[in-house]
Amino acid sequence: MLLDSFEPIHGVLLCEGEDIDPSLYESEVDVSGLSPEDLEEIRKLHASDTAIDKEKDSIELRLAKLCLERNIPYLGICRGSQVLNVACGGTLYQDVERELSKKHSKFDDRKNGVYVQHINYEDYDGHRHVVNVVGKTPLHHWFKESMEAGEGKMQIRVNSHHHQGVKKLAQRFVPMAFAPDGLIEGFYDPDAYNPKEGKFIMGLQFHPERMRGPDSDEFDYPGCPSAYQEFVKAAIAYKNKLNSSASVLPQSLKLDGEMEKKRKKILRSFSIARNIYTGGLGGGLHPIKESELEAGAEFLESNTALSLQQDNRLKQMGATVRNAGSYKRRLKLNEERERLARNVMGKMSVEQLSDLLAFYHMMGKICSEVVERKLNAIVNDIGS
Question: Where would one find the signal peptide in this protein (predicted)?
């Protein structure tokens, strides 16, 4: 898989880019209500943003989901925040100006402070609008002093250069800031936020790193660099946690002569069973003694901690086989199942196959770790 080339991943920062393909988040129940004429006008007005890149969408969504599965620190800025929301089942406004402004049409928007200009092509870095910050969130913590030093309002002014935004926020997230028109400008996962412990899952619609004065390196607010500082802190902590986990792996057990013979006998039993499973009985194997398969069978039968699924899988491999003839019939059944599986997978998309492969790769790793842990526990019990 392409994502394997990124490993090891200690943190992901995704920033701006083109619009996300609407088919990835919009259902028949949750439609934009935009007419074909509206969509055509949007494409003309925002030509540089509306050129969909499906390959980029696929890669970035898979990357975001990987971070969510492994709790890898993730910071999404602008499009990156939208990717994060869509990856968790949220939706987007295809055009904030046309969809969101309809809710405020009964107001004199500008007089009531409801109207918000979210994009200004003539003033990319200089354009700002107010956002209302939610208390007791990371964003509040970072900008608290600036808000108290001002008029005491829970507000800051942020840059803005986007025509899309979060419509329905995914259930796992909590908003951190709203524009006056109600658009969510920042969100995070409170259950996955503790930078010191390597936890950081957050999305910001604005660019704190670009909130500076003209021809100046000075930030609008002292809190502007905080999102990046905390993200880096989380990435370093996550990396250290991975390294620490790797360094405390149990050392190889030293077995006495009798235990070592027993271990080799069990391993040979599994090896024979594997060869039967992968090559059948007629693959030029040496004659198999029933006692050689018995060793693996006895080991499995004594290990009652195995789940039913694991036990069935190992039986399928032949580890508990005593009658080679009956196992040969099972092999034929497996061949039929394999043929059916190939037919089904042949109809799946590349993305579906990639997700399926990633799932079984993860399950394989988990199974290997659990089996190794159980083997060590059994050997320790026998040795004591």
Answer: none
